[in-house]
Write a structure and sequence with these properties.
This protein is an alpha/beta fold. Helix 7 (about 170-175) links the parallel strand 6 and strand 7.
């Protein structure tokens, strides 16, 4: 069976809510089956038979019942109690219609380090299961008392030599210990009863706590699940690809979008294996535009700022209250919204240049991205758009006039010529995500747009720790940020800031010109430049120019970065101007706390909440 034919399953422990909530979410997301976690069943008001019937109505099979703990290598009296417990669980499984039970390697103080005894007792359990048409999948917990590797669990299963006893392989238990999964290929496929998949960040902590709180869906962490799963499939595994993810955020989040995120992760994993039936991600050539939604007060403020940055208002939409501002290849759409909180603005949409916009939209839909309906006149461009997890609209388009269907044709051109200040294009877009959307957003942009995630960075900001991750491909870059905790009154007034970063070939010249034009640029304190001199010792003339223009600086082994910012506009939006020298590919994260503190001072000076 190829992985395209593999059924997709999810453990109920992955999702929040009651068992009924979880089953509904799994079915609506398109899963074929579920693993029933015992705690969910025990807490349900439905009988096992009713759960089975409900799953059947939803089109879900019950692929696994789990977990059965602390069974093997125990004294006779304990074994007798364990067998009685197992028979009662077999009764439940028969009512559920589940044919496989997960047995975890023991952590019991009653257990002894005796593989022969463990094999003997597991064989006895398998005989009882087989008599009822059931199977036992033995799993090595990464923290098992004596059995904590898949190689060890396989030796015991092989010694037991019963057809109803096989292995459950869990990617977390194997990869968290640094085990080499290549030897999985040597295990007969018929002895691989079940596969559980989970990603995770690389953390230095107790493996049990790591597992219980920090697992992620495939593609959201640091594990190489493509290689791992490839080994399992190459061994001849024929069961479902199933997710078992313990995560504090997921277990508090709405189960419906969480289940969609889970399904998207499995589809992307199958694609990485080279066998998924998904349209390939069309090549992206850059950012076509960023749309800012603003009320009339914020629109005036943003327009003045853009003019100060050297932009010109080059067009008016023929049927909508949208104005086009442009400098070089950087395009900003100002979309006047209904009156709201006075002076409010936000990034409403980002458009990427796609070699095949229809193909990009088709791929997005296959990956469960919500397609956004759009009203337009017959003579206007029919742009394809989907919704990102935070609600931002993502458009796929082609801007070049040679295509004949460019969205620019929807605008009445003005003859205004802007003053110009050296901006050449859009470098990146930075969006602050709600904490429980951070990993989901990274997976969305990776899977749907084909962007590659860079490592997660963390930095201490004036109001706490901030996580940042950039997803990029070619000239398309989106930086995702999230604060770990923000509660109460002592928190920044700009809770979810957003920025649009422009490119320039000469940041110092651009900053000087923009100041002449009256741009509301952010002032950086002298302490920063004193420290910069001590840390990186830039050329004295450059340091003086940086200080004069409030331009920040960073350097790594690949190149240099010069960048500067505007003040916050419309309550949460600000602009950045970036000059990259050499191969510098970062976002100047080391300067982020300096910028955040300066924004707080700016807002205090203007009499607004910090």
């Amino acid at each position: 069976m190829s992985s395209t034919e593999a059924r997709r399953s999810i453990a109920t422990v992955c999702l929040s809510g009651t068992l009924e909530d979880k089953l509904t979410a799994a079915a609506r997301a398109g899963f074929d089956g579920v693993e029933i976690f015992e705690n969910d069943l025990v807490a349900s008001s439905w009988s096992a038979k009713e759960i089975s019937e409900h799953c059947a109505d939803l089109g879900l099979s019950i692929d696994l019942y789990q977990p059965f703990r602390d069974f093997e290598a125990v004294p006779p009296a304990v074994l007798a109690r364990n067998l009685r417990r197992a028979e009662l669980k077999f009764d439940v499984m028969e009512q559920l219609g589940a044919d496989t039970m997960l047995v975890c390697s023991s952590v019991s103080p009653d257990a002894v380090d005796d593989d022969e005894l463990a094999a003997e007792q597991l064989r006895l359990l398998a005989e009882r299961a087989d008599a009822r048409g059931l199977r036992i999948a033995y799993e090595a917990l990464a923290w098992g008392r004596f059995v904590n590797t898949y190689e060890h669990s396989w030796r015991i299963v092989r010694r037991a030599a019963h057809p109803a006893l096989g292995l459950c392989l869990d990617s977390f238990h194997i990869l968290s210990r640094g085990s080499d999964p290549a030897a999985i290929r040597t295990i007969p496929g018929e002895k691989l009863f079940f596969l559980q998949l989970a990603d995770a960040p690389r953390l230095q902590m107790d493996v049990l706590q790591w597992s219980r709180h920090h697992r992620l869906f495939p593609g959201q962490g640091a594990f190489d699940l493509t290689t791992f799963t490839g080994h399992v499939l190459a061994a001849g595994y024929r069961g479902p690809l199933s997710l078992e993810v313990f995560n504090d955020v997921f277990r508090q989040a709405d189960p419906a979008p969480a289940a969609v995120d889970a399904m998207r992760s499995l589809l992307a994993l199958q694609e990485s294996l080279g066998v998924a039936d998904l349209p390939a991600a069309p090549e992206l050539a850059g950012h076509a535009f960023v749309e800012l939604a603003a009320d009339d007060v914020a629109e005036s403020e943003l327009a003045a700022a853009l003019r100060g940055l050297g932009f010109a208002e080059t067009g008016h939409h023929r049927s909508k209250p949208v104005r086009l501002w442009q400098q070089g290849d950087a395009r900003i759409l100002l979309n006047r919204t209904e009156p709201g909180p006075s002076g409010s603005a936000s990034v409403g949409a980002v458009a990427v240049e796609s070699a095949d916009p229809v193909g990009s939209a088709r791929r997005a839909q296959r990956l469960l991205a919500p397609i956004l309906p759009r009203s337009h006149r017959a003579d206007e461009a029919d742009l394809s758009a989907v919704a990102a997890p935070d609600g931002t609209s993502v458009f796929f388009c082609r801007t070049g006039a040679e295509t004949g269907d460019s969205w620019l044709g929807d605008f009445t051109v003005t003859d205004e010529a802007g003053p110009g200040a050296g901006v050449t294009g859009i470098d990146h877009l930075a969006l602050t995500q709600p904490f429980d959307h951070f990993d989901e957003a990274a997976l969305f942009y990776r899977a749907v747009l084909g962007l590659e995630p860079e490592p997660v960075t963390e930095f201490a900001a004036p109001f706490g720790l901030v996580r940042s991750r950039t997803v990029a491909s070619g000239r398309v870059r989106i930086t995702l940020e999230s604060a770990l905790l923000r509660r109460g009154e002592w928190a920044p007034g700009v809770r979810e800031p957003q920025r649009v970063a422009f490119t320039t070939a000469d940041a110092l010249a651009s900053a000087s010109r923009m100041r002449e034009l009256g741009a509301p640029l952010l002032d950086i304190p002298g302490n920063y430049y004193d420290d910069l001199d001590a840390r990186l010792a830039p050329d004295p003339e450059l340091l003086t120019a940086l200080r004069q223009q409030s331009v920040l600086y960073d350097r790594d082994e690949h190149g240099e970065l010069l960048h500067f910012f505007t003040v916050v506009l419309g309550g949460r939006v600000f602009f950045e101007v970036v000059q990259r020298i050499g191969g510098y590919a970062g976002d100047g994260a080391a300067n982020s706390p300096i910028r955040m503190a300066a924004h707080r001072r700016q807002r205090e000076a203007r009499g607004t909440s910090a």
